[in-house]
Structures are given as structure tokens and as C-alpha cells.
Write a structure and sequence with these properties.
The complex is a heterodimer of chains A (59) and B (676). Chain A is mainly α and 59 residues long. Chain A has a domain of 41 residues. Helix content of chain A is 49%, strand content 0%. Chain A is built from 2 helices and no strands. In chain A, helix 1 runs antiparallel to helix 2. Chain A is elongated and about 40 Å long. The termini of chain A are far apart. With 676 residues, chain B is α/β, with parallel strands linked by helices. Among the domains of chain B are: 45 residues; 142 residues. In chain B, strands 2-1-4-5-6-7 form a 6-stranded antiparallel beta sheet. The longest helix of chain B has 96 residues. Chain B is elongated, with a radius of gyration of 55 Å. The chains are: A mainly alpha (59), B alpha/beta (676).
Chain lengths: 59, 676
């Protein structure tokens, strides 16, 4: 008799965890990126930059 | 930021003028006196043109170049318009300059056509001036354009700030200067990015993995069941074999059947040997085919090639004349293909020359004959291959015949045994024992077939399982991607939650600071029974105490101006306090800003002017005020006299005479001011 295996399909919040240090780092870098573009009415490319920051910090 | 010196060249009516600003801590006010139309608003525009390239003139908005300079120029001449500001910012000295070149197109052209424009920013670094690579950006970071209306302040627009419909502008101004904008933006952008990662999760996470795993389990269950069946059948077969062995032992023990049973054993041994030999021959055939099987396949092409070559040789196509003509061409050219000179009479020449003629032709023809010979050898190989395989097949056929013969003999033994009626100790006849043995033999054969069928099914299921496992591996990889995207989504959402919390806290705090500061400033300026307030919705309101009640004031122009001045002054003051405090905020550091105000006292009555004059200089480190004499004289002058660091008068000449054009000179002493 095989052991019952947990079948994982959709991804739930419980399956992911992020350390406090990582969150602090993401926050710092996001605010830094925003600060650099603060003088612009339209912060062009900021979403891509934030996405990249998160990709780099959470991997 | 501290502004030190402004230089104007051909900027509207200013031909070549300079203002040095008051920078002392006690005397921080610079006053520029000027009649209406003398150039006060132009001075304010000089700042916005330099910083952002924008101007806002009521008259002749397109005319930036000095009319006098353009009039004196010839068509085709170029006039430089320039505004330069020297200032300090965060401990560094800067020189910012915007320059535009205008070309006069015709004798009557007083506007000119702008043909070039440039902004430069230099900063002092280790004793020398270094250019900033992105000057526009640098200036916008020092005083963001969105805040310029607060620091380069036009008294004519002052009413708008306290207007009922300007709540958004008030909120934006407060948020900007207090660092709330950065939080609000980060919050919004993180929301977008979290959405992107959520899409990525959806893209990777699917139910397919679950379906595949279920399918895999079903197949594993099937395989287990087949294996159980196979093992059962195997055990049944072993049982049958054991029964056959028992029956045969009985037959061996009986005198009547012993000889037949013994003979059958011999036949069986022979049969086993024959079958071994058949197997061995099968292996030989396989080996022959793998080693030489290509020969018959390639044979038609090889034969065709050999025939063609032979035909070409016979027709004299091989060797061609090319060899001789090529050698001749080398000798004629006097150079060998190796690069050495070929001079008649030298050894090398003779050697190359000797390559002509029969020797070369023979060589090629010999090669052709050798190739044809090799091809024919392959043809021989084909015959050998077929002979060899035919021989093995013949041997195998003989063995097949022998096998059939032995099987028949074994059957005959069985038939003979089944026909024997002698009774054994157990009461069964030899015939019955043999019949039973035969029946068991059939059952054994059936078991073997059954096992083979089950093995085949197992094999098929194993193949399906392997394919599924590959698909599952791929899905597992996608699932890893989905988990990573989910972590990123969660990180974006958690940081967003935090910043949202920070935003709400700071917003509330900022509203309280602003409210307190504006209330205090307004109290100092306005009548005792009036109070100003920034509401929860960031609306600037003015209240009046009437008896025990507080009613909102139907704002008069004067009160609106006071409220607006209080508001701007308060924000500048808060920014300065935040900058000077030790607060270690990652999103707001405050800043020191000058206040440059054009006609701020315009619509105020005398009492209010006095109060405003008292308060405004204390709100900013540096204040520059442009005012007419009528605005200045009296209470404003009385209150500000002792804190004036620099004072200028705009000496305007309307240039109405022949060959004269409007011009304003900036004087450090009061002359006779034309008009008011």
C-alpha cells in the first residue's frame, strides 16, 4: 500500500513564506526607485523596475 | 536651497541685469520694488524659464528676446537670451543657465526665431566646476515642477489656493512636500506589480498536474494488479509442473511404462538440443544481416556507378585533358601552385613538366580501374552474403524438420502410454495417468501463454507510466515557477500593505502638522475671531467665532489671500523643520526652499499686510518679494525694514521715443520710478 501523496494543484498562500529581511529589502529598494522618479509627473517604467526588484530579491 | 545671484541677458525687457539675493540669517529678505508693468512678473518668469523652460506672460507671450536687442540687430543676426542662477543646494554650489538663440528674420521682425536652446548645470567639485549630465533632471529634483507654484509664487493666483474647488491641489501640495506622494505612488505601483505576478501564477499553476498524478496512480494500480495475476499464474504453473513431475515419476516407477517414459525423456533432451541449435542459427542470421545486410541494399547503386565509370574509361573521358592543360598553364605562367618560380632548365620546371602526358593519364586511369575493381569486389561480397545466409537457413530448416519429428515421437509415446491399461498402486491405469499428465501439460502451456500475455500488458503499462512521469516532471517544473511567482506576488502585497499603513499614519500625522502650523500662522496674521483649518479631507477652511458657535467664513479676497499665504508658508516651514530634524525617514527628508513671491500683498488691507509681513519672513530661510510702492509703503515696509538684506528698484523705460524700446534696469538705489 502506497503512502497517500498530497496532490498539489493551485498554489495557496500557505505554501509560500518570505523572510522579514527580504521584505525590508524590497521595501527599501522600491522606495528608492520611487524617489528617483518622484520629480516626474509620469513615472515611466517604474512598474517594470519594481517587478525586477522583486524578481531579484525573491528568487 | 539658497539662491545667491540671478543674471539676465536680453530676457524680455532686461538687457543685462543682475540681482544678488539676501542670504543672511537675520536679514533674509530681498525686496524688488517695481511699478506695474516694470518687470516684476518677468523676474518671476525668469525663474520658471530657467528651471522648467516655462513662461506665463499676459502680453506678447512669444516674445522672449529683448525687443531693443532685436531692433538693433540686422536680419540674420543672432541674439542670445540667457538666465543664469547661482545657488547652493545641500552643501554644493551650482550655476544653472538656460540659453536660447534667436535669429532676426527680417527688418520688422522683433520676436525672432529660436534656432537653438540649451540648459546647463555646473556644480563645484574640489575647486573646479563640473557639468551635470542631466541638467533638466537635476533642476527638477532640486525644486520639482509640480511644487514650483508654491515656491515661485504669483500673487495673482493666490486666490485659487483657498478656493472651494482646490481641495485636490491642497492635498497634492501637502502630500508632495511631506513625502506622502512617494508612498502613494509606491502603493499603486506595487498593486500593479502584484497583479502581474498573480497572472504569472495563473499561467503556471494548472490542474493538469493533479490529473496526471491521478492517471499515474491508476496505471501503477493496474501494473500491481497485473503483477499479482502474473505471480498467481506463475505459482499455478509451478504447481502444474510439480504435478506433471509426480505423474512422470509414477510412470518411471512402473515397469510397463518405464521404458516409454525413459524414451520420452531422451526425445525431450534431443528436442531441447535442437531448439538450442535453432536459436543459435537465428543468432547467426541476425549477425550476418547486421554486418553485411547493407550490401544488397547498396548494390544497385554500386553496380550503376561501376558500369558508368567503366564506360567513361572506355570512352576515354577518364583521364581528361584537364591534367595536361593545367600543367601547361602552370609552366606558361612560370609559377608552380606551391608558389615557386618555374624557369625552363631548372629541376623544378622539369619535374612539373614531367607530370604531363601518359604518366598522369595512366595514374588516373589506374585509379579508375581500381575503383571499378573495388566496386566489383563489393558485388562479390553480396554473393557471399546471400550464400552464407542461404546456408544457415537451410541448416535451420533441417533442424525444424528434426524438431517436428521429435515432437511427433513424443506424441507417439504419449499415445502409446495412454493406450496402456495396466493398473497402478493407486488404482489408476497408466493410460489414465498419461491422459492426466497430458491434460496438465496443456494447462501448463496455457499458464505460460497467460504469463506472456500479462507480461506484455505490464510492459505496455510501464511504457505509459514512463511517458506520464515525463509529463509530470515537466508539470512539476511549472509548479516550481508558479510557487516562485506566488512568493513574489505575496512579497509585493505584503510590502504594499506595509506602505499603505505607513501612508495612512503619515497622512494623518501630516494633516495634524499642517493643521497646527497653518492654524498658528493664520492666528498670527488674521483677526482674533478667525481660525484656519486643514480638514480631514485636506480642505482649507476658515472659521469665525460668532457667539458660542463657529461658522465657516464666506471668504473675502483678503482672507483667502491670508489663508493661502499661511498655507504656503506653513508647508515651507514644515519641510524645513523635517529637513533639520534627525528624522531618519526613508521616504521623506524634507528640504529647505526659498519663497519667491510676486505681489503677495496685493489685495490685503493695511492690518493684514502688517501681519503677513511679520510672519512670512520667519517661515522660510530666504524670502524674495516683488512689490509696488503702494503695496510696500506703510505697514509692510515698517515690519520688514529691519530684515531686508538686499533691495532693488526696477527702473522701467517704456522707450516710446524714436529708436527707443522698452527696457528695465535693476538699480540698487531708488531713482524716480516711472508710474506705479
Amino acid at each position: 500500500m502506497r503512502k497517500p501523496v498530497r496532490v498539489m494543484t493551485g498554489v495557496s498562500d500557505e505554501e509560500v513564506s518570505i523572510t522579514r529581511d527580504k521584505l525590508v529589502k524590497v521595501r527599501e529598494r522600491v522606495l528608492e526607485a520611487e524617489k528617483e522618479k518622484l520629480h516626474l509627473d509620469l513615472a515611466r517604467g517604474i512598474n517594470d523596475e519594481i517587478e525586477q526588484i522583486i524578481r531579484e530579491e525573491i528568487n | 536651497m539658497q539662491i545667491d545671484r540671478l543674471e539676465l541677458e536680453n530676457f524680455r525687457q532686461f538687457r543685462d541685469e543682475t540681482i544678488a539675493f539676501a542670504t543672511g540669517s537675520d536679514r533674509n529678505v530681498t525686496v524688488v520694488h517695481g511699478a506695474n508693468g516694470s518687470g516684476k512678473t518677468t523676474l518671476l518668469n525668469a525663474f520658471t524659464w530657467l528651471f522648467y523652460g516655462n513662461v506665463d506672460f499676459d502680453t506678447r507671450p512669444d516674445r522672449l528676446a529683448s525687443e531693443g536687442a532685436m531692433a538693433n540687430a540686422q536680419p540674420g543676426d543672432r541674439i542670445t537670451v540667457s538666465v543664469q542662477l547661482q545657488f547652493e543646494h545641500e552643501g554644493e554650489a551650482y550655476i544653472a543657465q538656460r540659453e536660447a538663440i534667436y535669429e532676426k528674420r527680417s527688418a520688422t521682425d522683433f520676436d525672432g526665431e529660436m534656432i537653438d536652446s540649451e540648459v546647463t548645470v555646473k556644480y563645484r567639485n574640489n575647486g573646479s566646476w563640473q557639468p551635470r549630465n542631466n541638467p533638466g533632471n537635476t533642476l527638477d529634483q532640486i525644486i520639482p515642477e509640480r511644487l514650483s507654484g508654491l515656491f515661485f509664487f504669483d500673487g495673482e493666483d493666490i486666490d485659487e489656493l483657498a478656493g472651494i474647488d482646490n481641495q485636490d491641489r491642497i492635498q497634492e501640495a501637502i502630500q508632495n512636500i511631506m513625502g506622502l506622494t512617494i508612498l502613494e505612488r509606491a502603493n499603486r505601483h506595487l498593486d500593479t506589480v502584484a497583479g502581474r505576478f498573480e497572472d504569472e501564477v495563473d499561467e503556471y499553476a494548472s490542474d493538469e498536474l493533479s490529473e496526471l498524478i491521478s492517471e499515474k496512480r491508476a496505471i501503477e494500480d493496474d501494473i500491481e494488479e497485473f503483477k499479482r495475476d502474473r505471480d498467481d499464474t506463475q505459482r499455478r504453473k509451478e504447481r502444474i509442473e510439480s504435478e506433471i513431475e509426480d505423474l512422470e515419476q509414477k510412470l518411471e516407477r512402473l515397469d510397463e511404462s518405464a521404458a516409454l517414459q525413459e524414451r520420452r525423456e531422451e526425445y525431450r533432451e534431443d528436442l531441447a538440443e535442437v531448439e538450442d541449435r535453432i536459436d543459435s542459427l537465428d543468432e547467426d542470421i541476425k549477425s550476418q544481416i547486421s554486418q553485411n545486410g547493407f550490401v544488397p541494399l547498396a548494390m544497385p547503386l554500386l553496380k550503376e556507378t561501376a558500369t558508368e565509370l567503366d564506360q567513361m574509361r572506355e570512352e576515354g573521358v577518364i583521364p581528361s585533358e584537364l591534367s595536361n592543360s593545367f600543367v601547361d598553364s602552370l609552366l606558361d605562367a612560370g609559377q608552380c601552385i606551391c608558389g615557386r618560380p618555374l624557369e625552363p632548365g631548372t629541376d623544378h620546371y622539369d619535374k612539373v613538366a614531367s607530370m604531363r602526358g601518359d604518366t598522369v593519364a595512366d595514374g588516373v586511369e589506374q585509379s579508375a580501374i581500381r575503383i571499378i575493381g573495388h566496386l566489383n569486389e563489393v558485388s562479390d561480397k553480396e554473393s557471399e552474403f546471400f550464400d552464407s545466409v542461404d546456408e544457415i537457413i537451410e541448416q535451420r530448416k533441417n533442424l525444424y524438420d528434426r524438431r517436428d519429428e521429435l515432437e511427433e515421437l513424443i506424441d507417439e509415446v504419449s499415445s502409446e502410454l495412454q493406450g496402456m491399461n495396466q493398473t497402478t498402486e493407486s488404482g489408476q491405469s497408466i493410460g489414465e495417468l498419461e491422459a492426466k499428465r497430458e491434460q496438465k501439460e496443456t494447462e501448463r502451456e496455457e499458464s505460460i501463454s497467460e504469463i506472456a500475455r500479462i507480461e506484455e500488458r505490464i510492459e505496455r503499462k510501464q511504457e505509459e507510466l514512463e511517458s506520464l512521469e515525463e509529463q509530470i516532471d515537466e508539470q512539476q517544473d511549472e509548479r516550481e515557477e508558479a510557487l516562485l511567482a506566488k512568493r513574489r506576488q505575496k512579497a509585493a502585497e505584503l510590502v504594499q500593505d506595509e506602505l499603505e499603513g505607513s501612508f495612512e499614519d503619515l497622512k494623518d500625522q501630516v494633516r495634524q502638522w499642517s493643521n497646527k502650523m497653518i492654524k498658528q500662522t493664520f492666528d498670527d496674521i488674521a483677526s482674533k475671531d478667525l481660525t484656519a483649518e486643514i480638514t480631514d479631507d485636506f480642505e482649507l477652511k476658515i472659521w469665525q467665532d460668532v457667539g458660542d458657535e463657529r461658522v465657516e467664513v464666506d471668504k473675502s479676497t483678503g482672507e483667502r489671500q491670508i489663508a493661502s499665504l499661511a498655507f504656503i508658508g506653513s508647508l515651507v516651514n514644515i519641510a524645513r523643520e523635517r529637513y533639520e530634524s534627525d528624522s531618519d525617514s526613508e521616504y521623506f527628508t524634507g528640504g529647505i526652499y526659498p519663497l519667491v513671491m510676486d505681489s503677495p500683498f496685493g489685495a490685503l488691507d493695511k492690518d493684514h499686510r502688517r501681519q503677513v509681513s511679520k510672519v512670512i519672513p520667519s517661515l522660510a530661510n530666504q524670502v524674495v518679494v516683488f512689490a509696488t510702492d503702494s503695496q510696500w509703503e506703510g505697514p509692510v515696509e515698517e515690519e520688514m525694514r529691519d530684515i531686508i538684506g538686499e533691495q532693488y528698484w526696477l527702473d522701467f523705460d517704456s522707450g516710446e521715443g524714436e529708436g527707443e524700446y522698452p527696457q528695465t534696469r535693476i538699480a540698487t538705489e531708488q531713482a524716480s520710478i516711472r508710474g506705479d
